[in-house]
Write a structure and sequence with these properties.
The chain folds into five domains: 187 residues, Hypothetical protein af1432 (Orthogonal Bundle), CATH 1.10.3210; 140 residues, 2-Layer Sandwich (Beta Polymerase, domain 2), CATH 3.30.460.10; 76 residues, Roll (Ubiquitin-like (UB roll)), CATH 3.10.20; 62 residues, no CATH class; 75 residues, Alpha-Beta Plaits (2-Layer Sandwich), CATH 3.30.70.260. The protein is 48% helix and 15% strand. The protein contains 29 helices and 20 strands. The strands form five sheets. Strands 1, 2, 3, 4, 5 and 6 form a six-stranded mixed sheet that branches. β9 and β10 form a beta hairpin.
C-alpha cells in the first residue's frame, strides 16, 4: 500500500522542504474531505488521489500540481467549493482542481471517431493550464490499473474510451510513459482474449530473443567503445498493443511484426547522436528509406531522436533510436519534462511560463524549428485558438469557429432550429442571441412556431451556414411580403376607379400579366411591393385595357373572378390584410411590416411624425417625414409618393438622432449617456462635433418608441448641468 510517507520520500528528492509540507497539508485536507468515502475495491477513497499524485511525482511535477492531484475530486465528490479551496490554499491550486472537475463532468457517449476527435480537442481546449490535462491523465492511469473489479461490459466501455480519447492526448503531449501504460491497460481490458494469446506467443519465444538481443548489444557496445563513444544501450521489447495494432492495421502475421529487434542508444550530446549513427551504418547495412532525423525536424509533440533500421546478424532487422539524455526524458515525459529541467533554477516563473522557456531552449539546439513552433502553438493557453467546442442538451459536441454566437449554433443543429430561434439558454441560463460561445458550454435553443429570422442577425453571425440560411429566408420572406404589400397598394389604387382586384376576371388578369411581360399575377404584385412598378400606373393600365373601363367592379363582370384571398391566405403575414375600403385614405403603418418597408436614415421618422412613402426600386416603400428635404425632390413625380399614416397601436423601437450642445467639461458625455440609459432606450451611435474651445455638439442616435417618448428623453437631458440646448435632427 502506497502511503503519504512514501510520497513525501519521493518528493524530498527534488522539492524544497516547504513545498513537501504544502503537499502533506493538502493530503490532510483531502483525507478529511473524503472521510467515510470508499472505492469499489473497499479501500478508503483517499488512496486514489494519493496514487494519482504518485504518478505525477514520477514525472517530477511541481508541488502545486501534486496538491491539486490529491484534491482533484474534492469539488466533485464532497461539500467543498472552489472558493473554499482558494481560501485554504490559493487560487492556483483551486483553479487546477476546478479545471479537472469540469473535465470530469464531460461524458463520452458517442462511438463515432469524429466525435472522439472532437472530444479530445474539447478536453485540450478547456484546459487553460496544461497541468489540468496531466492530472486527468494520471487519474485515468490509476483508474485503469484498478479496473479489474468492474463488470466486463463496463470495463470494455472504459477501455475503449481510454484508447480513443486519453491515449491520443498523451501522445499529443509527448508523454510516452503514460501513453504506453494506458495502451497496455486499455488493450487488456478491451480485448482480454487477444491480449492473452499475444502475451503467450511472446513468452514462448522470449528466451531465444533475449539471447539475440544480448549478442547484438555486445557487438554494438564494443564498437562504440573503440570509437571512444560513451553511451547507454537498451534493448527494447515491443509493447503488446503496438504489436497488435501493427498486425491489425497492416494485416501482418505475428512473426512478421515480432521478428524486429529494437534498441535505444542514449548519448551525452546532439553531435554524438550523428557520430553513433555513422558508426552503426558502417557496422550494419542500413535499410534504404528507413532513416528519420527527428532531431533536425522534431515531431509536433516535441519528440526528438534519430531513427534507423539495419540489417543485423542472422538476417534480422534492427530498429535503433539514438537520442540524448534530455531527449529521452522528453520522449518519456513530454511537456511534463520542463519541470524536471527547472528543478535547479528555482525560477519564480509560473510552470506554464517555464514550459515555454523549455521549448525555447529546445528550439535553440536544433537546426530547423518549424515543427517545434507548431508544438509551441499547441501548448499555448488555448490549444485550439480558432474553434470552440460546445454541447447540445443531449451531449453531442458541436465544433464552431471562434466568435460564433447562439444563432450560429442553432443553424449548425438544423436549419429549422435556426429559423425558429427566439431565445437561448447557455449553461441553463438565459442569454442574448448575439452572445459569443465559449468552449465547454451547454447551449439550448428555444424555438417558437411563428418565429422567423431577423435581418439584424446578419450583423453578428460568423458562420457561412448561418449567413446563407438567414439570407435565403429573408429573400423568400421579402417575396411573400412584397406580394401582400403589392396587393394592398394595387387594390388601393384601383379604388380610385371604384374597382378592386376581386372584381377583375381571372382570364383578363392572365392576359394583362402577359402584356406586362411577366409570368404570373404574383410576379406583378411582387414588382409593385418591391417598388419596381408604381401601383397607380399599373391600376391605370389595367382599367384602360378593360372592355368597358367605366364599369365599376361592383357590377360583376362575366367569367371567373380573380382569387386574391387565396393568394393572401398563402403569402400574407398577420400584419397585411386586404383592405375592404377603396378610398384614397392613407395606408396605415404599424411598425412590424418587415423587409419591404424601410425607414429613411436622412430624417429618421418615428411614430407620431407626419409621414409619406417613396417607392424605391428593390426596397419597396421607404418612409420619410413629410418635412424631409429629400421628399421635395420626389414631388415632381407624384406617382412615386404614397400617403401614409401611423396606426394607433404602432410598436417597436425606432432610431432617431438628437443634437446636444454642451459646455466643454470633462465627463459630460458619460453623464448624458448614463441618463439616456436610465430612460429605457439604447444608444446606437455617438459622434462629436467640436464647435470651439467652449462648446461641443454631441450627436446621439438613439432608439425611441414614439414622439412622446422622445420628448420625455429630451426634457430630462435638458435638465442636466452643462447642457445648453437640445434638438432633433431631421435631414
Amino acid at each position: 500500500m502506497f502511503l503519504i510517507s512514501d510520497l513525501c520520500t519521493m518528493l524530498n528528492t527534488y522539492l524544497d522542504e516547504d513545498e513537501v509540507k504544502e503537499v502533506y497539508r493538502a493530503y490532510l485536507f483531502g483525507a478529511e474531505a473524503h472521510s467515510g468515502q470508499m472505492r469499489m475495491s473497499g479501500e478508503p477513497y483517499i488512496y486514489h488521489p494519493l496514487a494519482v499524485a504518485r504518478i505525477l511525482a514520477g514525472l517530477k511535477l511541481d508541488h502545486k500540481t501534486l496538491m491539486a492531484a490529491i484534491l482533484h475530486d474534492v469539488i466533485e465528490d464532497t461539500e467543498y467549493a472552489k472558493e473554499q479551496l482558494a481560501n485554504e490554499f490559493d487560487d492556483e491550486v483551486a483553479s487546477l482542481v476546478d479545471g479537472v472537475s469540469k473535465l470530469t463532468q464531460i461524458k463520452f457517449e458517442s462511438k463515432a471517431e469524429a466525435q472522439a476527435e472532437n472530444f479530445r480537442k474539447l478536453m485540450l481546449a478547456m484546459a487553460k493550464d496544461v497541468r489540468v490535462i496531466l492530472i486527468k491523465l494520471a487519474d485515468r492511469v490509476h483508474n485503469m490499473r484498478t479496473i479489474g473489479i468492474m463488470r466486463p461490459e463496463k470495463k470494455r466501455r472504459i477501455a475503449k474510451e481510454t484508447l480513443d480519447i486519453y491515449v491520443p492526448i498523451a501522445h499529443r503531449l509527448g508523454i510516452n510513459s503514460i501513453r504506453v501504460e494506458l495502451e497496455e491497460l486499455g488493450f487488456e481490458a478491451a480485448h482480454p482474449l487477444r491480449h492473452k494469446i499475444l502475451q503467450d506467443s511472446i513468452a514462448k519465444i522470449s528466451g531465444n530473443r533475449k539471447e539475440i538481443i544480448n549478442k547484438i548489444e555486445v557487438v554494438v557496445k564494443s564498437r562504440l567503445e573503440e570509437e571512444s563513444l560513451h553511451c547507454e544501450i537498451i534493448g527494447r521489447e515491443k509493447h503488446l498493443y503496438s504489436v497488435y495494432k501493427k498486425m491489425k492495421d497492416k494485416n501482418l502475421s505475428f512473426s512478421d511484426v515480432y521478428d524486429v529487434y529494437a534498441f535505444r542508444i542514449i548519448v551525452d550530446k546532439v553531435d554524438t547522436c550523428y557520430r553513433v549513427m555513422g558508426m552503426l551504418h558502417n557496422l550494419y547495412k542500413p535499410l534504404p528509406g528507413r532513416f528519420k532525423d527527428y532531431i533536425a525536424i522534431p515531431k509536433v509533440n516535441g519528440y526528438q531522436s534519430l531513427h534507423t533500421v539495419l540489417f543485423g546478424p542472422y538476417g534480422v532487422p534492427i530498429e535503433v533510436q539514438i537520442r540524448t539524455d534530455e531527449m529521452d526524458k522528453v520522449a518519456e515525459a513530454g511537456i511534463a519534462a520542463h519541470w524536471l529541467y527547472k528543478q535547479g533554477s528555482k525560477s519564480s516563473a509560473s510552470p506554464q511560463g517555464s514550459a515555454n522557456e523549455w521549448l525555447r531552449d529546445l528550439l535553440e539546439m536544433q537546426q530547423t524549428s518549424g515543427n517545434s513552433m507548431e508544438f509551441l502553438e499547441n501548448v499555448k493557453m488555448d490549444l485550439f485558438p480558432d474553434v470552440v467546442y460546445v454541447f447540445t442538451p443531449s451531449g453531442e459536441i458541436k465544433e464552431l469557429q471562434r466568435g460564433s454566437t447562439a444563432i450560429d449554433f442553432a443553424y449548425s443543429v438544423h436549419t429549422d432550429i435556426g429559423n425558429k430561434c427566439v431565445a437561448v439558454k447557455i449553461d441553463r441560463q438565459l442569454a442574448p442571441l448575439r452572445t459569443q460561445l465559449e468552449t465547454g458550454q451547454t447551449v439550448e435553443i428555444v424555438t417558437a412556431p411563428g418565429a422567423k429570422p431577423s435581418p439584424a442577425w446578419l450583423n453578428f453571425v460568423v458562420t457561412g451556414r448561418a449567413r446563407t440560411h438567414i439570407r435565403h429566408y429573408l429573400k423568400s420572406l421579402q417575396t411573400s411580403e412584397a406580394i401582400t404589400l403589392g396587393s394592398r397598394l394595387l387594390d388601393r389604387s384601383l379604388g380610385a376607379y371604384s374597382m378592386s382586384i376581386n372584381g377583375l376576371p381571372k382570364s383578363y388578369l392572365d392576359t394583362a400579366v402577359k402584356n406586362f411581360n411577366l409570368n404570373t399575377f404574383e410576379e406583378l404584385l411582387t414588382e409593385i411591393g418591391l417598388g419596381n412598378r408604381m401601383p397607380v400606373l399599373v391600376a391605370k393600365q389595367l382599367v384602360q385595357q378593360l372592355p368597358d373601363h367605366s364599369r365599376p367592379a361592383k357590377q360583376k363582370m362575366p367569367g371567373n373572378q380573380f382569387d386574391i384571398k387565396g393568394i393572401l391566405s398563402k403569402y400574407a403575414p398577420s400584419w397585411l390584410k386586404t383592405s375592404s375600403s377603396h378610398t384614397a385614405t392613407p395606408l396605415a403603418i404599424r411598425g412590424t411590416e418587415g423587409v419591404v418597408v424601410n425607414y429613411a436614415k436622412c430624417c429618421h421618422p418615428i411614430p407620431g411624425d407626419p409621414i409619406v412613402g417613396i417607392f424605391s426600386a428593390g426596397k419597396g416603400i421607404v418612409i420619410h417625414t413629410k418635412g424631409c428635404n429629400n421628399v421635395k425632390e420626389y414631388k415632381k413625380h407624384p406617382e412615386n409618393i404614397l400617403e401614409l399614416q401611423w396606426e394607433d397601436n404602432t410598436s417597436g423601437d425606432f432610431p432617431v438622432e438628437i443634437r446636444i450642445e454642451v459646455n466643454n467639461q470633462r465627463g459630460v458625455l458619460a453623464i448624458i449617456a448614463a441618463k439616456i440609459s436610465e430612460l429605457e432606450t439604447n444608444i446606437e451611435n455617438v459622434s462629436l462635433d467640436d464647435k470651439d474651445h467652449r462648446y461641443t455638439d454631441l450627436l446621439f442616435l438613439i432608439n425611441v418608441k414614439s414622439r412622446k417618448h422622445l420628448a420625455d428623453i429630451m426634457r430630462q437631458i435638458k435638465l442636466i448641468e452643462h447642457v445648453r440646448r437640445i434638438s432633433r435632427t431631421k435631414g
